[in-house]
Design goal:
mainly beta; globular; single chain; six-stranded mixed beta sheet
């Protein structure tokens, strides 16, 4: 059985345009760096240009973020500030199924 296209399955589309401070958007991308991995005050860099604050109080969940860095995901985020770096508050992170490789 052929797997349905992710964007079609969830009714998503890719658009370019300006984001508004205070608005919430799904950001498709990957964690490119963890700037702060302190439980409760995590700050992740997404796509090399977005700083996402995340309230993750559990160290084990922070470890999952570290493990899944550089894997594609969707980050549901509210824009806090725009500038050279866009700052967002991320409320939800959705990663795809874990890839497994056999050598």
């Amino acid at each position: 059985m052929e797997e349905q296209n992710f964007f079609e399955k969830f009714g998503l589309e890719v658009k370019s345009g300006d984001v508004e401070v205070g608005s919430t958007y799904p950001i498709y991308g990957m964690i490119t760096k963890l700037l702060d991995d302190t439980p409760g005050h995590v700050v992740a860099e997404i796509n090399f240009s977005i700083h996402a604050r995340m309230t993750i109080p559990d160290q084990s969940k922070v470890e999952i973020l570290k493990e899944r860095a550089f894997e594609p995901g969707i980050f549901v985020s509210t824009v806090l500030a725009k500038g050279e770096v866009i700052e967002v508050e991320c409320s939800t992170v959705v990663f795809g199924r874990k890839q497994q490789f056999s050598a």
